[in-house]
Amino acid sequence: MSLSRISLVIGAGALIVSTVLVSAQQPAPPQPAGPPRGSSGPPEHAKVAPINNLPNPYETIRNWGTLPDNRKWGSVSAVHVDADGKHIWAGDRCGANACVGSNVDPMVKLDPTGKVVASFGAGQILWPHGMDVDRQGNIWVADARSATAGELAKFPEWKGKGHTVLKFSPQGKLLLTIGTGGEAGDPPAKLTEPNDVLVAPDGSIFIAEAHQAQFLDENPPNGIGRITKWSPDGKLIKTFGSYGYGPSQFRGPHSLAMDSRGRLFVADRGNRRIQIFDQDGKHLDTWYQFSRISGLYIDRNDTLYAIDSESDDNYNPGWRKGLRVGSARTGEVWYFVPEHVSRNPSGMGGYGSMGEGIAVDAQGNVYGGEVGPIQGLTKFVMRLKR
To answer: Which domains does the chain have, with CATH numbers?
Structure first.
């Protein structure tokens, strides 16, 4: 079977706006009349035709992976392939959407059959959101929020958790903490809602902040749209980016990936795009054709996997939720895997559900971490080759 490809002209954002971060723990304020909060976007986005109808060469296998003791999966946005290319690490939010009050291990390692062979992290991780596995097999976890006042009233022992990036050994020993547990703020002492962490080949650490920034449209002071670079031992090297709609500005940088050339790809979810940088923070390009991306993964062949769990007609007009696969070298989009059918939609509304996290093993099998009405893991198996 012959599969077609589509090439697109790529634009860069130009409108510059700044705003302030809202705490991930606070309830959303009442919605005013008019467009939903956070539904604004860069004007360049409207110039790109939605990509919703490409070939789908994958078989979708829902409910992949079995947790011990008949434990049910909760939300999973943190997922990554192990250093061996075979096993899969996933950050389960303890059978719910947070681990506050739970005594189960949120971080689980699954073998190729979906059986859990190792786990760790009970009582240490509140809201696993993004993760990476470095070349030595260490597991890095972005714990993106702290406990709410209501949660602390019931479980005061969780006061010092969250707003951190944690490095664990392959056996689950805590080796390094970046940020101050339970406290949002600015580097080097603190982080604010870290979405994801990426370890470069030279050991440098990149962290993306902040989660709730995607839901803001206005321009109060002290906005956060931030990427930080750290030395392998956790010392701050530099910060780049700001809140807004233009180049090198972010509205919720949600996921990070790096290609074979060492370019840093940032899924700027609130702005419905990928921004590409060198490792010193120089802006290189902006791509809109992979949609409103929650999770981003680039394999050793520079195939780019972008999973969209949120699109609807308010937050990404004309685009469907789904998995888009293409080239990190050229920006071509090759395939589209549509959203799952579900009673309630994931993300911001609209139709159907799709995961947030994304990882790919050495055989090319794709794993989606589900958050929302459908939870756990989904496996996508390539049945047709290019």
So the answer is: 43-382 (2.120.10.30)
